Amino acid sequence: MDEEKVITCKSLSKKFGDFYAVNEITFDVNKGEIFGFLGANGAGKTTAMRMLCGLSFPSSGEATVAGFDVYKQQEFIKKNIGYMSQKFSLYENLSILENIEFFGGVYGLDRKEIKERSGLLIQTLGLEKEAKKMVGELPLGWKQKLAFSVAIFHRPKIVFLDEPTGGVDPVTRRQFWDMIYEAAATGITIFVTTHYMDEAEYCNRISIMVDGKVEALDSPSNLKSKFSVHSMDDVFYQLARGASRSAD
Ligand SMILES: Nc1ncnc2c1ncn2[C@@H]1O[C@H](COP(=O)(O)OP(=O)(O)OP(=O)(O)O)[C@@H](O)[C@H]1O
User: Fold this and answer.
1) Residue 168 lies in a domain
2) Does residue 14 line the site of ligand 1, with CB under 6 A?
3) Which protein residue has the closest C-alpha to ligand 1 atom 10?
4) With b meaning 16 or more CB within 10 Å and e meaning fewer, what string describes 93-102?
5) Which of 27, 38, 85, 120 has its CA at a distance of 20 to 30 angstroms from the CA of residue 216?
6) How many helices (H) and strands (E) would you count in the chain?
7) What is the CATH classification number for the domain harbouring 170?
């Protein structure tokens, strides 16, 4: 039986003037999969992700997210996904509980659902004593965990994570990845960009973008054997060293 595809993407492109930021990318993502979206700075990851999140229109090609069309059904896409960027959207001057309640409301949950789920979430995170603390007082790692929890609070089909673990130590990153695994086990699909190659190893499959194109797509172990190397670092280096784009 075919696996359920929650993202389909065929020859998807985005042009700015004559410049192809994303150049005919094609891939599918399966339900419950942890899909790593890698690429050097400027490769086109954010541009591609914005199209898939229903935040910008493609120039050409086709894509569906959670079964909805990226040209015609952007509003449905937004309702069925969660999104966490590096500058996550938590309010620093609201308490942990207030942030959870606020985002529950934004995502259209009713008061009863919000109350039940926020209590459960605070318990799961072990933040009972801190619930009334301002988010601004939390260490970065905790903010990231909270931002992720908020992004999946409405139980979306897919969550998009744009470099979610920047700036924290390896232990905290590992704990964050435990949360990712738990979410994936409940059937939420994870679409994650990262520059950390240890994190790439945690993904079920990885795509690597170079200069707007997807140059490799497979499981970490298959990629390592295809490139005859022992680490994802080496796979990434072999592909990205020829890139002509760099950070802006
Ligand atoms: N609005 C825009 N107008 C013109 N060019 C753009 C625009 N947005 C992005 N670009 C260009 O498209 C290319 C891809 O950018 P993008 O931000 O998608 O890369 P990225 O892979 O997310 O990089 P990073 O890892 O640095 O975030 C870059 O060369 C960038 O300068």
Assistant:
1) yes
2) no
3) 21
4) eebbbbbbbb
5) 85
6) 9, 10
7) 3.40.50.300
- Indicate whether residue 42 lines ligand 1 (CB < 6 A): yes
CA of 16 to the centre of ligand 1 (A): 10
**169 within some domain:** yes
If you measure from the C-alpha of residue 94 to the centroid of ligand 1, how many angstroms do you get, rounded to a whole number? Answer: 32
Residue with tokens 């493609």, as numbered in its chain: 58
Q: Model ipTM?
A: 0.95
Q: Give this prediction's pTM.
A: 0.93
- The 3-state DSSP class for residue 36 equals strand
In a domain, 82, yes or no: yes
Average pLDDT over residues 160-181: 92
Does residue 55 have its Cβ closer than 6 Å to ligand 1? Answer: no
- Full domain range(s) for residue 53: 5-90+157-240
97 domain residue, yes or no: no
Ligand 1 pocket check for 46: Cβ under 6 Å? yes
Q: 120-154: per-residue pLDDT in tens?
A: 999 988 889 989 999 999 999 999 999 999 999 99
Residue for token pair 């090609």: 61
CA of 9 to the centre of ligand 1 (A): 19
Cβ of 44 less than 6 Å from ligand 1: yes
Q: What is the domain count for the chain?
A: 1
Question: Rounded CA gap, 20 and 13, in Å?
Answer: 7
